[in-house]
Specification:
Layout (H helix, E strand, L loop, with lengths): L5 H5 L1 H10 L1 E9 L5 H11 L5 H14 L16 H6 L6 E6 L3 E7 L7 H8 L4 E7 L6 H12 L4 E7 L8 H17 L4 E6 L23 H7 L12 E3 L2 E6 L2 E7 L4 E3 L3 E4 L4 E10 L2 E3 L1 E3 L3 E6 L10 E3 L6 E12 L10 E6 L2 E14 L6 E2 L9 E14 L6 H4 E5 L6 E10 L1 H4 L10 H8 L4 E6 L6 H14 L4 E5 H4 L11 H20 L3 E5 L5 H10 L5 E7 L2 H7 L4 H6 L21 E4 L5 H18 L2
Helix pairs in contact: 13-19, 15-16
Length: 634
C-alpha cells in the first residue's frame, strides 16, 4: 500500500485485533449524473491512504489516458472500473469499496446516477446505514436528486448527508450552499427524512472531505469523514421482537431435532417461549446450539440451531417468533414494488415470491397506483415498466409470516422471480397484511370432487387447447366434445370468443388483459373440474406463464395441454375472421403472432398437426388419449 498502519509491520496480531473491534458503517453515494460521486469516494480512498501501489501506478497512467482532469489525478477512476463506464464517464453498476480509518471500518457503494440504472441504486441502498446525496453546487437539486432521495426513504435509510459538491466551481459561495440546503430539506421533510447533515465540499480539491477548508470559513460543521466516523446508526435489530426464519430442519439422528437459521432480529435465551405463527403452536427453548458449543443467549445476526422442549410441526420457511409480539400471517398484503426488469409487470401473472427461505407462487392482484418519484404524486396505471415504483396488492398461493417493512427490514422485504427465466424482476417492501384475506376461509362441504366423479362415471379432466388464431383449436375442441357426449361423458366447452361476451367482456387485448383473461378462465375451469366434469378450454393463451398457472390449479394428471401446432402462414391463409388482414394493416396492434408474441408449449401432453391432418382425425386422437388414460387409471 502507499501507506500502512505501523502495527502491520510491528505487530500484525494487534493490528488485526484493532480491526476486529472497530464498528462497521455501510453507506452509499447517490445523486444525479456527474455530481461527483465516484470522485468523492476516490478522494476518500486516496486521503485514507488505502490505495495499493499497483493501483496508484495504474491510476496515474489511466488519469493521463482517459481522465478528465488533465495531468492531475482523476479520483473517479478508482471506482469506474467497467470499460463502458470509463468510455461514457458515468457509473453503470454498483461499485463496492472497503476502507478504514483509526476509528471505523467502512463499506461504501457508489451507485449509478443515470435514471436508466435506478434499479442498481436500490440494490446498493438496501443494506446501507447512511446515504450521501451529492448535489452539484452549480445545478442545485435536480430530478434525479429527488428520485434517489425518495428511494433512500423507501428502503428505510434515515441518516442522510447532503454533500453540496463542486463548491470550487461557485467560488465557495455561502448563499449558494444555504439555498440548496433549504430547498433539499423542504423536499426531504415530505419523505420523512429528518436526520440531515449538510456539508459544502469539493471532492476534486479535497475541501471539507477529510480536513476543514479555509475557503469555507463560514461553515462550522463537521467534515464528511468526521461525520461518517462519528454518526450513530440505530440498527435496532436487537431491540426488535425475536424473529428467526427456519432455513433447515436439522435431524442427524432420532435423538436430535433442531431448527437452524440466522436470527433476523431480537434475542433468544434458553427457557424463552417461542411461537410458530403458521400453526399457532408454542413451545419453550431447550438448547441453543452452535458449532462452538451451546449458548445461553443468542442475538440478531447469529447462526444457531434451536431445539424445543415439545415436538411441534415446524418446516423450512416457518418463522420462529416472540409469542407476545407475533408477525402477521396472511396470504395477501399491500407492498411497494420496485420493478427491475425490461419485461413489464403483468398483474395476474404468476411469479415466484421469495421472502427469507420461503418461496411461493404469487401474483400482483392489483396495481393500486404508481408513484411519480419526481413529484411524489400517485398516478394510475395497469403495469410497471423498468425502474418504476408502484403500490400493489400481492396475493400468495399460501399464507406466510411477515412484518411491515418499516418495523423489520429482514422479515418485511421480498423479491419476485420470473418462474421461467429465474430472473429477479422486482424488489418489494411490505406495508401491511390485507386483513380481509385472513377472514376468508374454505367452507367445509360434504360432497367432494371424488363423489361427483363417481356419480358422473368419469375422472375430471381439463383439456387446454392452445394455438394461434386460425390453428383449428376451436374446431377440434368442438368435435372432441361431440364425441365425448356420444360416449355418455359430462363435458363443458369454454371458448375464447364466447367467454369474452360475458365473464371477460370488460377485458381488452393488452398483455395485462390477456393475463387476466386466462387467470379467470383457469379459475372457472378449476371449478368445473371440481364438479367432476371434463372441461374443454379453447384459448390462444399465448404465454407459458399463464398456462403453467392454470395447470397448477388442477390436481396431478388432471390438466392436459393440447397444442394445435399450425404454422403462422397456414393460419394467415385461413384467416376465418379476417383478423390477420387487419393486423397486417395495423388495425389490430396486439394481435398474437403479428404484434404480440405466442410462446408455444415446450412439453404438451398432446401435440396436433393442425396443417397436416383433418380436424376429425385430430379430434379422434384426443379422444383415444383420454380413453387410454382411463384404462391405465391415470
Amino acid at each position: 500500500m502507499s501507506h500502512q498502519s505501523q502495527l502491520i509491520s510491528g505487530d500484525i496480531l494487534a493490528y488485526l485485533k484493532t480491526q476486529e473491534q472497530k464498528s462497521m458503517l455501510r453507506f452509499i453515494t447517490c445523486g444525479s449524473v456527474d455530481d461527483g460521486k465516484s470522485t468523492l469516494i476516490g478522494r476518500l480512498l486516496w486521503d485514507s491512504k488505502l490505495v495499493f501501489e499497483d493501483q496508484l501506478a495504474s491510476l496515474e497512467a489511466d488519469s493521463k489516458k482517459v481522465g478528465t482532469q488533465g495531468d492531475d489525478i482523476d479520483y473517479a477512476l478508482l471506482l469506474d472500473g467497467l470499460q463502458a463506464e470509463r468510455e461514457q464517464g458515468i457509473t453503470i453498476d454498483v461499485a463496492y469499496r472497503y476502507f478504514s480509518t483509526d476509528k471505523r471500518k467502512f463499506i461504501v457503494a457508489d451507485t449509478p446516477g443515470h435514471e436508466q440504472y435506478t434499479r442498481n441504486m436500490v440494490t446498493g441502498a438496501s443494506t446501507a446505514d447512511v446515504a450521501v446525496v451529492l448535489v452539484d453546487a452549480r445545478k442545485g437539486v435536480l430530478t434525479q436528486t429527488r428520485r434517489h432521495s425518495f428511494l433512500v426513504s423507501l428502503v428505510g435509510i434515515r441518516n442522510v448527508v447532503l454533500a453540496v459538491n463542486k463548491m470550487d466551481m461557485v467560488d465557495y459561495s455561502a448563499s449558494k450552499f444555504h439555498a440548496i440546503r433549504e430547498e433539499y430539506e423542504a423536499f426531504a421533510s415530505e419523505l420523512g427524512i429528518s436526520n440531515i447533515v449538510s456539508i459544502p465540499l469539493s471532492a476534486l480539491k479535497g475541501d471539507n472531505v477529510i480536513d476543514l477548508s479555509e475557503k469555507t470559513d463560514w461553515y462550522s460543521g463537521p467534515t464528511l469523514m468526521e461525520h461518517l466516523e462519528t454518526v450513530e446508526v440505530d440498527r435496532g435489530q436487537t431491540d426488535k421482537p425475536f424473529r428467526m426464519p427456519v432455513q433447515w430442519v436439522n435431524r442427524p439422528n432420532l435423538d436430535f431435532r433442531g431448527f437452524s437459521g440466522t436470527i433476523a432480529s431480537g434475542s433468544l435465551s434458553v427457557g424463552d417461549k417461542i411461537a410458530v405463527p403458521s400453526s399457532g403452536q408454542t413451545s419453550v427453548v431447550d438448547r441453543i446450539v452452535t458449532m462452538d458449543g451451546d449458548l445461553e443467549q443468542a442475538h440478531d445476526g447469529q447462526a444457531v440451531t434451536v431445539t424445543l422442549k415439545d415436538e411441534i410441526d415446524i418446516s423450512r420457511g416457518d418463522l420462529l417468533a416472540d409469542p407476545l409480539a407475533r408477525p402477521d400471517h396472511a396470504d395477501q398484503f399491500e407492498a411497494k414494488v420496485v420493478w427491475m426488469h425490461d419485461e413489464p409487470l403483468l398483474p395476474g401473472r404468476s411469479y415466484l415470491l421469495k421472502i427469507g427461505p420461503s418461496s411461493v407462487p404469487a401474483q400482483v392482484s392489483d396495481l393500486k397506483y404508481k408513484i411519480n418519484v419526481n413529484t411524489l404524486e400517485h398516478e394510475p396505471g395497469k403495469t410497471l415498466e423498468l425502474n418504476e415504483i408502484g403500490v400493489c396488492n400481492v396475493s400468495l398461493s399460501k399464507a406466510l409470516s411477515f412484518d411491515p417493512y418499516v418495523e423489520n427490514h429482514a422479515t418485511g422485504s421480498f423479491i419476485l422471480v420470473d418462474r421461467f427465466t429465474n430472473a429477479t424482476v422486482a424488489a418489494g417492501m411490505i406495508d401491511f397484511a390485507l386483513r380481509r384475506a385472513t377472514n376468508v376461509h374454505w367452507q367445509a362441504v360434504e360432497v367432494n370432487k371424488q363423489a361427483r366423479e363417481e356419480q358422473n362415471g368419469q375422472k375430471a379432466r381439463v383439456l387446454w387447447f392452445t394455438g394461434l388464431s386460425g390453428s383449428g383449436k376451436s374446431t377440434v375442441a368442438n368435435l372432441v366434445e361431440k364425441k365425448l357426449l356420444s360416449m355418455g361423458k359430462r363435458t363443458y366447452l369454454l371458448d375464447g370468443d364466447n367467454v369474452r361476451h360475458g365473464l371477460n367482456k370488460d377485458l381488452g387485448f393488452t398483455d395485462t388483459d390477456r393475463v387476466e383473461n386466462i387467470r379467470r378462465v383457469a379459475e372457472v375451469s378449476s371449478l368445473f373440474a371440481d364438479a367432476g366434469m371434463i372441461v374443454l378450454v379453447s384459448f390462444i393463451s399465448p404465454f407459458r406463464s399463464e398456462r403453467r398457472m392454470a395447470r397448477e390449479l388442477m390436481a396431478e394428471g388432471e390438466f392436459l395441454e393440447v397444442y394445435v401446432n399450425t404454422p403462422l402462414e397456414v393460419c394467415e391463409q385461413r384467416d376465418p375472421k379476417g383478423l390477420y388482414k387487419k393486423a397486417r394493416a395495423g388495425e389490430l396492434p396486439n394481435f398474437t403472432g403479428i404484434g404480440s408474441e405466442y410462446q408455444p408449449p415446450e412439453n404438451p401432453e398432446i401435440e396436433l398437426d393442425g396443417a397436416g391432418e383433418s380436424p376429425e382425425a385430430l379430434a379422434e386422437r384426443v379422444v383415444q388419449t383420454l380413453v387410454e388414460l382411463e384404462r391405465a387409471g391415470g
